[in-house]
Amino acid sequence: MIDLSWLFHLASLFPLDGMDMRFMQQALVALVLLAPMTAALGVQVVCYRMAFFSDAVGHSAFAGVAIGLVLGVNPHISMPLFGLAVGLVIMFMQRFSALPSDTVIGVVFSAVVAAGLAVVSRNNTIARDLQQFLYGDILTMTETDICWLLALFAVFVLFQIVAFNRLLYASTSSIIARAHRVPVALFEYLFAALLALVVMFSVWGVGVLLVTAMLIVPAAAARNFARSAGGMFWWAIVVSLTSAVTGLALSVQPWMGTATGATIILVCCVWFVASVVVLAVRNERQA
Amino acid sequence: MENDNAPAIVFDHVSVTRSGLNILDQVNASVPRGSCTVLIGPNGAGKTTLLLALLGEVNYRGNITLGGGRGLRIGYVPQKLALDRGMPFTVAEFLSMGIQKRPLWLGISRQARKQARDLLDLVHATHLIRRRVGTLSGGEMQRVLLALALQQNPELLVLDEPSAGVDFEGGRLFCELLEDLRKSQGFTQIMVSHDLGMVAHHATCVICLKRRVIAQGPPAKVLTGEVLQTLFGMHMGLICAQDHLHAMPAGSGHTASCGELHHD
């Protein structure tokens, strides 16, 4: 296991009550790693119109855990792997099926949710974990999870360096991109795989119900703030990161006592409202 | 060494079937190298499908042979772009995403910006470099899409109704621009058009398509009342256009001839 004590020591310096506790340090580190990933991938999800895709992968989390428990596999491993498989199956079916894209996702979505519920309905012990997946709990992130997150973050940074321009090309028009010799399929599969993994880790933090919000809301706010595609990338990260940290800080206040995931999304939504105002003012000035 | 007179594209018994319906039926046609070849035909004739088959975007039976093989540099200009108009995506970024290795979130390099400006110069649209792609008019968008295609330094330029949604004057200017570029850069151009006036003025070769090839050859020989009657099911008044054609000089020196009128 990698020694992460330096990272947790850094987190403990954050001026917030309770940061001397390890679980709070782990939560902060996990959020600081997750937020930029969901934000940047969210920009691409918006460009690709893949919100429904990420929702379907998120909803496969419970089936991933349930199947893992039935097969005796650690849920922290079975869940991301199952999500990855679901993401790749959707991409494959979209590419080779004559069905419309949202129909393909709808079918897979239904199958994974039904599979999860079927397994759960036979086993009450798993049913008790349901709430954690619905609402998420960033405070339960383990040190091993954070090691995986660090590895995923490194892959994410590499991917964004290599693939950002090509994905932008492909999202503009896949036919133009292919005609102009961009290996669209390769980058789409890699993007779907990375997105599936990030979505699964986000489920621990914000829950199945809010995972799509973590992708879409910062990107939607960034779309209003930014004046360029590059600017939208950075704005999404700023919105997501500040929302994550503020949401964590607010949720642990005794007078709030709210679920961290939900609080983070609410802060994101405040950012979004601010972005709508900024856009309206900007348009007014240009008119 | 490759024969300079060999056609740029040969469609050999190309058929496309979708849901049991023959979209294209045994299409045989050739596109001369360096030509401006225009596909004409009524809606549903399979013009766009033939272009998509050429690009490898639809499955087909038969053969499509490209002079220069599958490694041929192709530039593609679609009819329109299904783009979210509110996306903050600048023309400079649009023209840099294909040439710049550095991700655009680290900014546009000086070299990529210069190349983008040079490309916009070519299509007489330098003033658009700071604009958002979503705010461009139909005519401006066509120029930017053409600039993106020219970035490939194409040997073959494929255009699907580039003047659709553009006013008459805009369409005329776009076609003149294309003709100048084709002559200066020497690429082969294949495009779909519904504008028979433009075809008569600018095409060096016409392929009349109605699921199969009705006729192909130089416009002066192909755009006859008989062919147009077969193609569109109505008598077309092309006398003026034909008069104009007779008054036009023959194809430019470097352009291969389109061959004789051919009826299937």
Tell me the name of the CATH homologous superfamily of the largest domain in chain B: P-loop containing nucleotide triphosphate hydrolases
Q: Which CATH C-level class of chain A is it?
A: Mainly Alpha
CATH architecture of chain A: Orthogonal Bundle
Q: Averaged pLDDT of chain A, please? A: 89
Residue share in helix of chain B: 25-40%
Radius of gyration of chain A over alpha carbons?
19 Å
Q: What's the end-to-end separation of chain A, in Å?
A: 58 Å
Principal-axes shape call of chain A? globular
Helix tally of chain A equals 14
* Unreliable residue stretches of chain A: none
> How far apart are the termini of chain B?
32 Å
Task: List descriptors.
heterodimer; A: 287 residues; ABC transporter involved in vitamin B12 uptake, BtuC; globular; B: 264 residues; Rossmann fold; 2 domains; 7-stranded mixed sheet; 9 helices; 10 strands; 32% helix; disordered C terminus
How would you describe what is shown here?
Chain A contains 14 helices and no strands. Chain A has 287 residues and is mainly α. With 264 residues, chain B is α/β, with parallel strands linked by helices. Chain B has two domains: 175 residues, Rossmann fold; 68 residues. The chains are: A mainly alpha (287), B alpha/beta (264).
Short description:
The complex is a heterodimer of chains A (about 290) and B (about 260). Chain A is mainly α and about 290 residues long.
Topology:
The complex is a heterodimer of chains A (287) and B (264).
Chain A: H1 5-12, H2 22-48, H3 51-59, H4 61-71, H5 75-96, H6 101-122, H7 124-127, H8 130-135, H9 143-172, H10 174-179, H11 184-206, H12 211-225, H13 229-251, H14 260-286
Chain B: E1 9-18, E2 21-31, E3 36-40, H1 47-54, E4 61-66, E5 74-77, H2 91-94, H3 110-122, H4 138-150, E6 156-160, H5 168-185, E7 188-192, H6 196-202, E8 205-210, E9 212-217, H7 219-222, H8 225-232, H9 239-247, E10 262-263
Parallel strand pairs in B: 3-7, 3-8, 5-6, 6-7
Antiparallel strand pairs in B: 1-2, 1-4, 8-9, 9-10
Helix pairs in contact in B: 3-4
